[in-house]
Here is the input.
Amino acid sequence: MTTTTESSTPQPTQRPVWRRLLGFNLLTAVLLGVGGYYLGWFIGRQIGFEGSFHYQTKSDENDVALLLAYFFGVIGFLIGLGFANYPLSRMLGRPASLREKEGEGIGRYFGLCTDHKVVGIQYLVGIGVFIFVGAVNAMLIRAELLHPTPKFVGPEQYLSLVGMHGTMMMGMMTSGIMGPFANYFVPIMIGARRMAFPRIEALTFWLLMAAGFILTSTIFFGGFPTGWTGYEPLNDQAALGMDSYICFFALVGISMALLGLNMIATIMTMRAPGLTWSRLPIFVWSVFATAILMVLAAPMLIATLLMAALDRTIDTSFFVAGGGGSSYLFENLFWFFGHPEVYVLALPGFGIVLELLPVFTRKPLWGYRLAVSGMLGVTLLSFFVWQHHLFVSGINADLRPFYMLSTEIISIPTGFIFLCVMGTLWKARSTFTVPMLFCLGWAFNFLIGGLSGVFLSDTPSDTDTHGSFFVMAHFHYTIVGGLVFTFFGAIYYWVPKMTGLRFNERLAKAHFWLMFVAFNSTFMPLFVLGMKGMPRRVSSYAPNLQGLNVWVSISAFVLGFSMLIFLANVVYSLIFVRLRAEANPWRSKSTEWQLPTPVPVNNFEQIPVFDSDPYDYGTPVAPIGRAQPASAGA
Amino acid sequence: MSEPNHGRRFALIWLVATLIATPLVVVLLGPILPPGNGSEQASGKVTDNTVLLAMAMPVLLLVVIYLIYAVIFFRQPKGGVLEGPAVRGDSRIQTTWIIVTSLLVLTLAVYGTVRLEAGYGAGSGSGPSPVTVPSGPKLPVQVIAQQWKFTFRYPTYGGVETPHLVLPVNQMVELHVTSLDVIHSFWAIQLGVKADANPDVDNIAFVKPTKLESFEVRCAELCGIWHGAMFDYGHVVSASAFNNWIHQQEVTFAPATKVLPPYSTTYLPEPTRRGG
Here is the structure.
């Protein structure tokens, strides 16, 4: 098929290579990005002349120059991709169009494309690359911790690795499901032909790529010592590499806020006829809840980092004790963003699990309304718990009972999700396919994560576990055990739809089992290490803890190896063998599986009309508890 | 083929497992839970952790046994295409679940609050003006954190500042934790004390050591490259041994005490900006 279309339109392929490279594409973007970088650097050097500001007298480093270099670099990169074309042409009075959507073949994936399906795949691959970088950092961290004193990379590089690992993962995984799967499937699931703002959709992706590149570039500036939290005044004290962190997270924040805004607008305004709120697939609900969090939380992060950047460059003192500022302010602002952020990571996972379970249990989703209220409850409450990160800091100590209460209350809506999972599994006809296994893995891991959270929410108990490996184990259980497991579940479930190719089942099962066992074997002992008094982010620790640490490191390497199995499966199944996937291998009743593969550019020839939710599984039970819709014909 | 009564069977398995496992865990794990019994606060938190663990066990077992049960019994026969029952919810179960989890959660919050305030902050840094303050005489000790060490100042002993932390047994100690540069966190592991050290902040924690022992002191907040090396031992000694030690310190550090700034709850060190 593709060959005939190419031969029928021969003109684009006959243009010489150099001609095709001219124009707005990734190559131009990189060139303009580099150009912008050096322009910003040059301007920064002119502003930051000798003795003008404090930052120059303390060291040779010019934060103004680096921040401007990043700023102009990103602007150049975006212009090179063609993001300025449309606004400019509109200003010149040209008509509105979705021209960027056109185009054929592999080239679409390397530039500005407004097809939500292309953006979804761009996200999956792009984020994957940076998550790989983060994972390699984790391996190096564990290699250092094989020995109780820093021997392998040294304390400075160790902290850079910790900071890069945490920041990269936190930044990239916020869009781990929202980027690839929400962008790809939300429009299809709600019966739309595109997202509400297709160019903004593309922008969120390319901003994230620029951000990932900037964070990786921190290694050229000495890294940063603060971990992903970037606490002041250590932030202020740190060398140039800190600016990479600030730029990275600010760009991630912009990307998050725009992605959230786009999702909200799409879900609210572009649902097909008949798709009422109570018929919305539960995954779309989870995306909606996450999007609300992103829009409300991310601007706080951007503002906070702007203040940190001003402190570092022109000597403001938002966070400087004795200058009218306070290190508490940063902690408050950061966690006001930071706690919703961890629910940005958790909620899409809930959605994936609840979306996939009905397919593999052959049952309708149990407790749909409960699940929705659980997600919205988490969304609302997550803005009222942030000071539980600061129980021992001395901030508002008299308010600690309130934050204890609010934190523990948030486990009620989270419990709803568990009840829905359990209800759906009851008397099910489960098939234990790979996506189903990952969902069950989620249930176990998130349970451990949640129950360890009970200890952390209790102020007396938290006093001992705060800042220790216990916390580290807790949030890896919720994020890796929660989000990353569902991320892989979604990959195994949906990639056959996205690519038309299927994975090797045996390798996929090996991946799951090795990952599940190695994950628990890595993070379960960390609870013990934390309770025995091992603080987070240390490169030297008590020698009597070496045995457990070696165990953890080896388990972590096995966990890393399980990821290599996955990569091998990707290369083997999707690149070499290329086995065609069935049209609907899971016998799913969801909209996306009813479409042809590959999904046509405009998704639907005719906008579908919905008369039920997509969980029409199962045989009706004899005494029907609730009135069935009259249209349901069995 | 008649289905067994899964509901009753599962409930029975869960009940038996809970009744066996919970006491077992409390008896076996309870005594070795952190932070040990080095102080009143620490012992109190061993109790807290035991209570939390006892409350978590039934929930843990409920979900884990349920998952295992569902995986064993609710399967699709090999190659089958059977559908499950089309049950979309059960308002009775949902209401019960909401009530039970809410009660559990409220119990936890009330219990945590009572234990926090009754334990005078349970060893946590409680800010410059703690809500509950123990009555009776208290020994004030200032913990001054900086990159990358702790020093300790005893204002009632001539404001002497020493690199060693020695505390008398059975005496309520009022720790004033502050920092000279970035945020640190003073963690006396076996005493169950943790309090962040912020510049320009006086963070108070109460602790009453009850056991003659050495305890580990660590920094629990990332503070730069030697964060992991910010480590020392402190000692809990008898009242008379403490008196001897502190007078010896006063003599040893007399020349240094003379040039120290006067005792203050917080310090604003110079330079106030980027140090290194």
Observations:
- The two ends of chain A are 39 Å apart (CA to CA).
- Chain A has a mean pLDDT of 89.
- Residues 279 and 613 of chain A are 4 Å apart (CA to CA).
